[in-house]
Amino acid sequence: MVTVKIGNTGIISNKNGFGALPIQRIDSTKAAEILVRAFEGGINFFDTSRVYSDSEAKIGMALSHVREKIHIATKTKARNEDEFWADLKQSLQTLKTNYIDIYQFHNPSFCPKPGDGTGLFEAMLEAKNQGLIKHIGITNHKIHVVIEAIESGLYETIQFPFSYLATEDEVKLVEMCKENGVGFIAMKSLAGGLINNSKAAYAYLSLFENVLPIWGVQKISELEEFLEYVQNPPVMTPEVIDLIESDKKILSGEFCRGCGYCLPCPAEIDIPNAARMSLMIRRAPTKGLFGEAWQIKMNKIEDCIECRHCSDNCPYGLDTPNLLRRNFEDYVETIKISSDV
Fold it and tell me: Which residues contact residue 32 at a Cβ distance below 8 angstroms, ignoring those fewer than 6 apart?
């Protein structure tokens, strides 16, 4: 079994962390089945958030009886001290626990620090002093915020997107965390679903001993893939290297990661999916994507009012309206070609 030491926290996790965002989409019975199976299969790190609807409650319901055998990380999007304490109180209640292993600021637009006027970091320190949280973390999609967090010496963990599509600067970020004793929790290690070979994804991340990937799981079949890696971890082979290089050529550059920070869209466009439809129809079964429901969704791109809310809030600096138009044109053309065949 491959394990990861999470920075200087003292937490040691199986290399497979459980990303609990997707379990908000399934009913409580199925969620409990998946969570218990994950624990029994060797997974001991579970990451969730106050804003993932009932994800925390499902973890509390399914795993409170083994609380001392697992590590729980959750997050707050609080903007001030009062919201912080309200979120923390609610998280403790729904998770059915009296402490949280890693409490994280959830994708703030800045790096909270003592004296910044928000009271956020002061509240975090007080919560730690009271024993309500054990370690302080931050999640983000903007590399400059994460670098500031590491350099500040205030944070014990960072959570950042990391996969085999990573840029050189993102790889350097992993090394920076290692040098500073900061735990690196990797979200979106399947690039929001665009990476469709979990063995290759795991094999790449296995090259970084200080990186803990959290895999988003909502089906038992998905979970079983990662549980298999607990006992038989995939490794880099010439075939895996070729696959990764091929995917990099297709997926690197200006593509939507599906993070959803562009929402809500006033024109009700499903931006996280519509903006990467060109990639999805080349990497997934197209039957559903070419159906009437998706054609209606894609046609809504023509209702774009150019408000720029999406591009202004994109952590990757994408020109989202332009990306949507390109994807729509490609989608229409691909459907036409498929119909003519």
Answer: 58, 61, 62
